[in-house]
Specification:
NE0471 N-terminal domain-like; Hypothetical protein af1432; six-stranded mixed β-sheet; four-stranded antiparallel β-sheet
Length: 539
């Protein structure tokens, strides 16, 4: 008997029950309301077994929890990843000084598109540092929309799906002039504000027009440190941000610095062009303007401003709730043309989470090949990993479709111990590794990959029945396991097997399986097949 951890209150624990009666197994969504639970909910009994906590509740319900689920403190530590607690605050020297602690977060567009790890690194930089630059993005009209679509969705505004940042004859915004623009955030008069902005340079041969970024969270943190009373004023004073033109009238009343319930900086809105008329008592106006001036001065400190010049093909992605962007004035006889659009952090965070989830799956498989896979393979002259890699290489050379190459590569993961099964097979006990492996892999791959794996042992038994010469070609170890696994099928069962949807694919995997036992054959590494597996992941 093991008591439920004190950090797991009964209603929290029951609310997180993962069983199929409490959550839809297809989507994980809860099937009950919190008010459906008993008034006096309590644990009748609990025990720890095989890395899980088994709980019997006083209403008769049974729950089973992985032990690593039983913590209530993670959210308090990390929150929604939007606050300063989950950011790396910076100043310009962090990227520009000799032996700077940070490298400028940048990547080539082709690498970003082609390599999931590179894409994840760029998106992680936007989340952590607030920005990243993509280089060599084609200088084509509307290409900025393709960049936004690579991680999320465009937020259309009164400026349209995208906007052109260039000198306009009748501008409705100073951004569409050649004037210098002080550090600011965009669209503060919207609620909710667009949380991401993209600027793609199509041309920039004007004199001037350099860009700048300021970490608004760093500036706000400095204000809190140097003038805590001013910081408090800016977090509690609602500022009327407004925009109007012939077709639009927008207003949002928000503080310049927004904090979460724990007091952590979560958002900065700073745009002197859009602040309307505050109506407050004189003392409050005086305090606000003193704090506002101090904060504005901090954002304009040269040491906080990272200055750079966008060239054709550069696309800047940045957090519009954190970073302030600026530009120097430029001469109108040169051409400076950026195209911009807005997007949102939630879609970027979603894309990054999926990329990381997929990378974790592939890393787990790679670890199996490098770890347990290095062990002997059921008495054969190759290791388990060499055997599976050879099978995949044979499938690849045969021109097999990707799902069959993957099935050949992963067909024997059910032999691995630890997260899968043990090695009872050579001791005369069928470990049902084809079923175990297919079930384990179904977390990540669809039936096109898993079902040939599930049937590959049955395919050996089938072939022994329908092709008498096949059995004679089996290795000594394979002949032994054939007997443990049930021996050749009856003619009736073989006919039934042949009718199964995945039978032909399973037979193909089986033949590569039988051939993949040559200790003298050079095989590609797991990394060779990683991009193929990445494309097949059903996560």
């Amino acid at each position: 008997m093991s008591a439920v951890p004190a950090s797991s209150p009964p209603y929290w624990l029951r609310d997180n029950c993962p069983c199929a009666d409490c959550r839809d197994p297809r989507n994980g969504q809860k099937l009950f309301q919190i008010t459906d639970l008993p008034e006096e909910l309590s644990v009748s009994a609990s025990t720890e077994l095989n890395g899980r906590l088994e709980v019997l509740w006083n209403d008769g319900h049974r729950s089973s929890y992985p032990l690593d689920l039983l913590t209530t403190e993670e959210h308090a530590r990390t929150g929604d990843r939007r606050t300063e607690a989950d950011k790396r605050l910076w100043q310009a020297a962090d990227f520009t000084a000799d032996q700077a602690p940070e490298q400028l977060p940048e990547a080539r567009w082709a690498d970003y598109l082609g390599d999931p790890a590179e894409r994840a690194a760029v998106l992680r930089a936007v989340q952590r540092l607030g920005f990243a630059v993509l280089r060599e993005v084609p200088t084509a009209d509307r290409q900025v929309l393709a960049v936004a679509a690579s991680f999320g969705y465009v937020r259309a505004t009164n400026y349209g799906e995208l906007f052109d940042v260039r000198v306009e004859p009748d501008p409705n915004n100073l951004a569409f002039t050649s004037a210098a623009i002080a550090p600011h955030t965009d669209n503060p008069y919207r609620d909710p504000v667009p949380t991401l902005q993209l600027l793609h340079c199509l041309a920039n041969d004007a004199v001037g027009g350099d860009s700048g970024l300021v970490d608004g969270f760093r500036a706000a943190a400095l204000l809190r440190e140097q003038a805590p009373e001013d910081f408090a004023v800016l977090t509690r004073t609602l500022v009327p941000f407004a925009f109007r033109d012939r077709d639009t009238e927008l207003r949002a009343d928000r503080p310049l610095i927004e904090v979460d319930p724990l007091g952590r900086i979560r958002e900065v809105r700073m745009n002197n062009r859009s602040i309307g008329r505050l109506v407050l008592p004189t003392a409050e106006l005086t305090a606000f303007y003193a704090a506002y001036r101090r904060f504005a001065a901090l954002t304009q400190r040269p040491e906080l401003q990272l200055s750079f010049r966008l060239g054709p093909g550069d696309c800047l992605i940045f957090d519009n709730t954190r970073l302030l962007h600026a530009r120097t004035a430029f001469e109108q006889d040169g051409r400076r043309h950026l195209q911009g659009c807005y997007a949102d952090l939630d879609s970027l965070a979603s894309t990054l989470a999926v990329l990381e989830r997929r990378a974790t799956a592939l890393d787990e498989l790679a670890a199996l090949f490098a770890g347990e896979g290095a062990a002997e393979y059921l008495g054969e002259a190759v290791t388990q990993a060499e055997h599976m890699l050879q099978a995949a290489a044979l499938a690849e050379r045969a021109g097999a479709p990707d799902h069959l190459v993957a099935a050949a590569l992963l067909h024997d993961v059910g032999h691995f111990h630890g997260v899968v099964t043990g090695r009872q097979l050579m001791l005369g006990e069928d470990n049902r590794h084809s079923d175990t492996g297919a079930d384990w892999l179904a977390r990540w791959f669809g039936p096109a990959v898993t079902e040939p794996i599930r049937l590959h042992v049955a395919a050996k038994r089938y072939l022994c029945t329908v092709e008498p010469a096949y059995r004679a070609q089996l290795s000594e170890a394979s002949e032994y396991t054939l007997k443990v696994q049930g021996g050749p099928m009856t003619a009736e069962r073989a006919a039934a097997f042949a009718e199964l949807p995945g039978a032909a694919d399973a037979v193909a995997v089986r033949r590569w399986d039988d051939q993949a036992k040559d200790p003298d054959t050079a095989t590609p590494s797991f990394d060779h097949f990683r991009p193929l597996l990445e494309c097949l992941l059903a996560l």
